[in-house]
UniProtKB/TrEMBL annotation:
The modification 4-aspartylphosphate is found at D54. CDD domains: LuxR_C_like, REC_NarL-like. It holds the Pfam family GerE. Residues 3-119 form the Response regulatory domain. Residues 147-212 form the HTH luxR-type domain. It comes from Streptomyces ochraceiscleroticus. The keyword Nucleotide-binding does not apply. This is Response regulator. PANTHER family: TRANSCRIPTIONAL REGULATORY PROTEIN NARL-RELATED, TWO-COMPONENT RESPONSE REGULATOR. SUPFAM superfamilies: C-terminal effector domain of the bipartite response regulators, CheY-like.
């Protein structure tokens, strides 16, 4: 069973997500939190596999909560639920360790699949969010030189795989695109994360955009 903690300041939202996720045979909602501070305490007490995190909340927002949760446990998986157009913190949340984003208007199936994907260690970025992220990275300008230098640690094939990861492709899709076995892609992704000192595919995507390895229009 995948254990989920739901974090949202609205009772109806928490209850609605709880009903939807508990109806899944492989997912169990183990707790709810009303804000970021409550979330940090609940994560420490309940050890959920996935934290379903709202961004805009009183006292401590989802960004600060994500930062604290990931700082306390590098393996923590936070799936941020967002309306995106109203949230300025999306890019920052990726930087502090969120494993992915899902729009709040997602269907029950998309919500459950999102939880499963993040629990399995994959990145989750909805296409609409990816487009906005590309725009944001474009606005931010050139990367810091140290990050640019780290690209040189990658082989040509690893660089190619990183670009495809940043474009939102799954391991299976990358394998089909490069005409290799999916297990080979998994190996490449693991090596990329180790070489770049990153925790997951989401941070790898952020790195690719920050270093201009992937740019708008590619």
């Amino acid at each position: 069973m995948i254990k989920v903690l739901i974090v949202d300041d609205q009772v109806m939202v928490r209850e609605g997500f709880s009903v939807l996720l508990n109806a899944m045979p492989d997912i169990e909602v183990v707790g709810e939190a009303v804000n970021g501070r409550d979330a940090v305490h609940k994560v420490a007490a309940l050890h959920p596999d996935v934290v379903l995190m709202d961004i805009r909340m009183p006292e401590v927002n989802g960004l600060e909560a994500t930062r604290e949760i990931v700082a306390a446990d590098a393996d923590a998986k936070v799936l941020v639920l967002t309306t995106f157009d109203l949230d300025e913190y999306v890019y920052q949340a990726l930087r502090v360790g969120a494993s992915g984003f899902l729009l709040k208007d997602a269907s029950a199936g998309q919500l459950a699949d999102g939880v499963r994907i993040v629990a399995a260690g994959e990145a989750l970025l909805a296409p609409a969010i990816t487009k906005r992220l590309i725009s944001e990275f474009s606005r931010l300008g050139a990367p810091r030189p140290p990050a640019q230098e780290r690209i040189g640690d990658l082989t040509e094939r690893e660089t190619e795989v990183l670009v495809l990861v940043a474009q939102g492709l799954s391991n299976g899709e990358i394998a089909a695109h490069l005409v290799v076995a999916e297990s080979t892609i998994k190996t490449h992704v693991s090596r990329i994360l180790v070489k770049l000192g990153l925790r997951d595919r989401t941070q790898a995507a952020v790195f690719a955009y920050e270093t201009r390895l992937v740019t708008p229009g590619l």
